């Protein structure tokens, strides 16, 4: 099949070495694109072109287009955004200009249409030009047939942001979880976009309810996972959050909570991503302070 052949060629390509953008087949129709700022998933239908889940960070546009053009040789007809973050939507204008119909949750469109502020890293993000904005939006869920598969996209209550969706390839039993799943990397939670640790834990539980032992789970960041790995993510997040909650209720400040190392047992497996254990604790703590200060003065903690 074309995807498998392309993968072999790709490993020999010079451009792959230059950009690090890499296409890896998952089966005859689905392939993973890595090295593009986030994990992208592409579905090929012989007569219907390509369906892409997330468009990567803008600076990797060239590499993404290279692997799609040279190894799949079909236009992107649909682009589904899992949420608004720039690592997942940076290529939107290029694909929109190329004729792709962009699909996303209404809150994703809302945030892509106006300036946003991210706290990690601290940056202001400009709105996307009109051609990069989703044209098909939804509130709860939707689906479309693409080639031999049915692609279902569903909004989950606020978790990583307030516009997260999960994209399910029903026949292939493959989910793209966006940033509701980080595999063996401490997750980022975008409190400024309506996210919360409790929402992340609840979303992971909902995906776990639907998945089975043969489901392939694509995280937004980290390696391709299975149900047991999403369970480990859920359990780690629930455990660390509970430890921080307990110390906060006892009146401990951030430095004392960090010194108690609530992430100690997870450091070796989870501490090799963008966030160290201490930074992850600071992130969760900042979310708790934000939630508390929204309800009552900070000193009440
Ligand atoms: Zn994200």
Summarize the helices and strands and which ones pair or pack:
Blueprint: H1 2-10, H2 14-19, E1 22-25, E2 30-34, E3 40-45, E4 49-53, H3 61-71, E5 76-80, H4 86-89, H5 92-97, E6 101-105, H6 106-112, E7 116-119, E8 122-125, E9 136-138, E10 141-146, E11 149-155, E12 165-169, E13 174-176, E14 182-183, H7 197-210, E15 216-218, E16 221-222, H8 227-249, H9 254-259, H10 267-270, H11 277-295
Parallel strand pairs: 4-5, 5-6, 6-9, 13-15, 14-16
Antiparallel strand pairs: 1-2, 2-3, 3-4, 7-8, 10-11, 11-12, 12-13
The structure holds zinc ion.
Zinc ion (ZN) binds next to loops.
If you had to describe this structure to a student in words, what would you say it looks like?
- This protein is of the alpha/beta class.
- The protein has a single domain, classed as Metallo-beta-lactamase, Chain A, CATH 3.60.15.
- It has helices at residues 2-10, 14-19, 61-71, 86-89, 92-97, 106-112, 197-210, 227-249, 254-259, 267-270, 277-295; strands at residues 22-25, 30-34, 40-45, 49-53, 76-80, 101-105, 116-119, 122-125, 136-138, 141-146, 149-155, 165-169, 174-176, 182-183, 216-218, 221-222.
- The strands form four sheets. Strands 1-2-3-4-5-6-9 form a seven-stranded mixed sheet. A five-stranded mixed sheet has the order 10-11-12-13-15, with no helix packed on it. The chain has a two-stranded antiparallel sheet with strand order 7-8.
- The longest helix has 23 residues, at 227-249.
- It binds zinc ion.
- The site of zinc ion has 5 residues, from loops.
């Amino acid at each position: 099949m074309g995807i498998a052949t392309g993968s072999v060629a790709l490993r020999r390509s010079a451009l792959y070495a230059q950009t690090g953008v890499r296409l890896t087949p998952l089966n005859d129709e689905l392939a993973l694109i890595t090295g593009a700022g986030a994990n992208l998933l592409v579905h090929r239908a012989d007569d219907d072109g390509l369906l892409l889940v997330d468009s990567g960070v803008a600076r990797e546009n060239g590499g993404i287009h290279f692997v799609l053009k040279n190894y799949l040789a079909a236009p992107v007809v649909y682009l589904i955004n899992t949420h608004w973050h720039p690592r997942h939507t940076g290529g939107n204008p290029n694909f929109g200009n190329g004729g792709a119909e962009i699909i996303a949750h209404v809150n994703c469109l809302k945030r892509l249409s106006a300036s946003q502020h991210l706290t990690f890293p601290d940056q202001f993000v400009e709105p996307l030009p009109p051609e990069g904005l989703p044209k098909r939006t939804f509130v709860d869920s939707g689906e479309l047939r693409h080639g031999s598969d049915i692609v279902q996209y569903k909004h989950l209550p606020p978790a990583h942001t307030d516009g997260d969706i999960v994209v399910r390839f029903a026949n292939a039993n493959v989910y793209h979880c966006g940033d509701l799943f980080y595999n063996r990397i401490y997750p980022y939670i975008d409190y400024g976009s309506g996210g919360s640790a409790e929402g992340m834990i609840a979303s992971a539980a909902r995906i776990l309810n639907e998945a089975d032992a043969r489901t392939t789970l694509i995280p937004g960041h980290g390696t391709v996972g299975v149900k047991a790995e999403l369970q480990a993510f859920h359990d780690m997040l629930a455990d660390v959050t509970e430890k921080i909650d307990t110390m906060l209720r006892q009146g401990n400040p951030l430095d004392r909570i960090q010194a108690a190392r609530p992430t100690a047992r997870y450091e070796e497996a989870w501490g090799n991503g963008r966030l160290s254990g201490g930074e992850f604790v600071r992130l969760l703590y900042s979310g708790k302070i934000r939630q508390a200060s929204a309800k009552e003065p900070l000193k009440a903690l």
